[in-house]
Amino acid sequence: MSKGLQPNLMKSLYWLLGLFLISVVLVHVILRGFMDTTVESTYASIKDIEAKNAMRSGWLPKWLPSTVTEIIEIHDLDTNLSMIKFSFVKNTDLRLPPLCKKIEPTLPLVLPFNRRGWLSDLSLGPDTTILNHDFFQCEHEYIAISKILGKGYIWRSK
């Protein structure tokens, strides 16, 4: 091979290598966009949770009351962020884990997922719903409970 062709061949190889690397990055970005790692599950009641053996996954807390209904659980498999929304019989005493401490809510509330109706239920809107909730922090988990409304929210932000 003549010495005059070597620089052109090297430029072509570098160009092809660059094109290959750009292609790999683009394919990764495109595939990542199609692979949603967020899972959403709904349960009608505690019986539904038990029938589906959902407590074993670890996403639902064992302290949920036996009167729990309308459970919506969302979690991300990559980040371990999660949110749970549920209803229960009004004025039910809930037995939260011993590490849970009552806190004042920090506004604005930041939930790990953007789901319609979740923040509005807890916002300082015209009905001041947030005033009807007690807030707790349990390590990396936050809980908002309204015995008056029979509503509960749990979210894990770390």
Automatic annotation (TrEMBL):
Keywords: Membrane, Transmembrane, Transmembrane helix
Residue ranges occupied by any YbbD head domain in the UniProt entry: 36-87
Phylogenetic classification of the source organism: Bacteria, Pseudomonadati, Pseudomonadota, Gammaproteobacteria, Enterobacterales
Native species: Candidatus Fukatsuia symbiotica
InterPro entries, A to Z: YbbD_head
Sequence intervals crossing the membrane: 12-31
A Pfam family it matches: YbbD_head
Keyword Membrane: yes
UniProt name for this protein: YbbD head domain-containing protein
